[in-house]
Amino acid sequence: MPQKEVIYMKIILIKYGELTTKSGNRKLFINILYNNIKKALEKYDVNIIKNRVRMFIETEDNIDEIVNILKNIFGIHSIVVANRVNTNIKDIEDNVLKIAKEMEFKTFKVETDRADKTFPICSMEFSKRIGAILLKNIDNIKVDVHNPDYLVKIEIREDYTYIYEKELPASGGYPVGVAGKGLLMLSGGIDSPVAGYLAMKRGIRLECVYFESPPHTSEMAKNKVKALVEKLTEYDANITLNVVKFTDIQEAIYKNIDPTYMITIMRRMMYRIAEKIMEKEGLLCLINGESVGQVASQTLTSMKVINNVTNVPVIRPVACLDKLEIIGISRKIGTYETSILPYEDCCTIFLPKHPVINPDIDKTIAYEKSFDYERLIEIAVNTRERIKIKKDYIKFDI
């Protein structure tokens, strides 16, 4: 195949990772990843080239800035900033030597991946050949195959060859959108943003729902949740937040229900509302930050009784993580400091001293008959506020 003229020396090379395990859906996954990258880099002058095994980004813009954005895009296993040269022996040798002379190292190792099987020298022999050139032309260096200061990686492909040193880890997972769209119950605490992050990592695009209870909850608490959504836009640039006024339902529960069952019934109402929002917006699953046994409403018995009101799939990404693991992820994704701000949400303002941990389903249903919750739910769903939050570093008053 005739080679194209090399326009850019520096190029960003993207490796897919888990996407390579797909066969029939691989093209779909790669196309969604391509569109996600294109959207994330819309402010930059880039040319994105995709194929079944790699994606390449050509640009003359700030490569470090672009790499930092790419690190947060799910579906990318690793990122390489490479020097691209024509696939012929002399060009590869000359450029490897030129690049190495700009580095400071005492020990090195060469690794060659000969993807182009028409290239006349096998991988191992070519690595030896390049190693000999470096030893001959650079003083005071030696080979160390176990722990080198400088690792020279060479990927020989049919059109071009890529020379690089470091492979930067990215977020992995599936591209956001390949699994459809779900509704995240976002409370403002530590767990639910982490649940949203983990759901996006499995390819689920998010909408969020937040239950406010003015005047019992403040505008600051609402802004805190908006700020958490904005943090999540690091991984998907546009997320819609549904804000549901929960005051009338919560006050009805407070007036009519045995205090020990208030949280159980409140959560059942939230599930009912969430299901109706899902129906209206065409969402496929409900996502929350429940962790088994962490609070009274998260015992297995409580989960069963609460889940009883819906047949939609309920995904609990942090269900089997302990609190320290969840905190670790929240710090990593930048939501922790916002989550711990001291603004109460509607789940805590009427919290009883001794909530039931093993609720009885028949008793729960009997309590619910004490007020007209269906009418209140319809009002809450129909009067909800829909806020589109974009990745533009909005600052909320929190």
Structure, explained:
Helix content is 37%, strand content 21%. It is an alpha/beta fold. It folds into two domains: 10-169, 2-Layer Sandwich (VC0802-like); 181-390, Rossmann fold (3-Layer(aba) Sandwich). Strand 10, helix 5 (191-201) and strand 11 (205-212) form a beta-alpha-beta unit. The model has no long low-confidence stretch (mean pLDDT 92).
Alpha-carbon Rg, integer: 27 Å
Number of strands: 15
Molecular shape? elongated
CATH H-level superfamily title of the largest domain: HUPs
The DSSP helix count reads 13
Q: Estimate the strand proportion.
A: 15-25%
Structural class: alpha/beta
Quaternary structure: single chain
Low-pLDDT stretches are none
- How does the major sheet shape up? 9 strands, mixed
Q: Helix proportion of residues, in percent?
A: 25-40%
How many separate structural domains?
2
Following the backbone from N to C, one meets helices and strands in this order, namely EHEEHEHEHEEEEEHEHEHHEHEHHHHE
CATH class of the largest domain: Alpha Beta
- What's the mean pLDDT score? 92
Fill in the CATH topology of the largest domain.
Answer: Rossmann fold
Query: What is the CATH architecture annotation of the largest domain?
Result: 3-Layer(aba) Sandwich
Q: Give the termini separation.
A: 59 Å
